[in-house]
Queue: 2 jobs
Job 1
Amino acid sequence: MKNLFIFVLVFLVLNVVNPCNGCPIILRGYVVHIKSDIINDDVTVHCQSKDDDMGYHVLHSPNLEFQWKFCETITGSTLFFCHFWWQNKEQIFDVFNISMAQWCFVDHLEGNTCNWEIKDDGFYFYEPHNYVWLKQYSWKQIPEGKLIL
């Protein structure tokens, strides 16, 4: 009987959901927020993890933002990457991995938010401790003859 009580207690604790982010209380919830500063031109984004495909999204005025919420895995191995296309340029990189999590600021309504901004010269990540956008990646030219999305 004691073992059953312990099992039920552990089960309940592991499944108590944080009302702010919808994740079990022992896991952190995150938001990846991507915003394009490229006006009057399409930026196509395709984001995914090993288990989840966020699909293709076209960022174009007035719909210049895309975001999704998720819960970290119990092993802390959550990774999301995105492929971006703009004109004859592209870039692929991780938009979230566990080593980046410390730089995702806490927004009590949404959870821990990782902010990315797309500009014509590259990709910027918001560093909340110093309140600055830091350039992380530049656009890469798509080689001539390569099939574009």
Job 2
Amino acid sequence: MLAVVCRHPTSVRTFRKAIVTMADALAKIPDVEIDPEGTFKYILVRVKVKDGDVNKDIVRGTKSAEYHNHIFEKVGPAMEALGLECKCLGGGKIEHNSKEKKIRVFGESTGFGKADHSVSVEKLKSAFSNYEITWSDDKK
């Protein structure tokens, strides 16, 4: 039996360009989007290029969310609109005190489980480099 492999340089270049463009789209997504003040629910989300291995973790949190899934219900469609897919890795709460420049990460999500707060804190430190940021497994 004879197998024929056909290679189209143009198709390969187009495919590589699409992957680079998707990776660029991923890089443009902010690592952190949280409310400027207060105590609120947050989720840790892994965003990735569809059918690819490139991904990044992002933190999203807001007082307007009664439940953690309300945050994910906004993040998911926004990422899909960019051609990306996402998965919630867990959640918790954030206490953000902008006057004292302090953030505390704690708790867990009933629906998604506890996020890896150490990962969330590293993301927060990149966005709030002049803050004191701590985490614990405390429920409150």
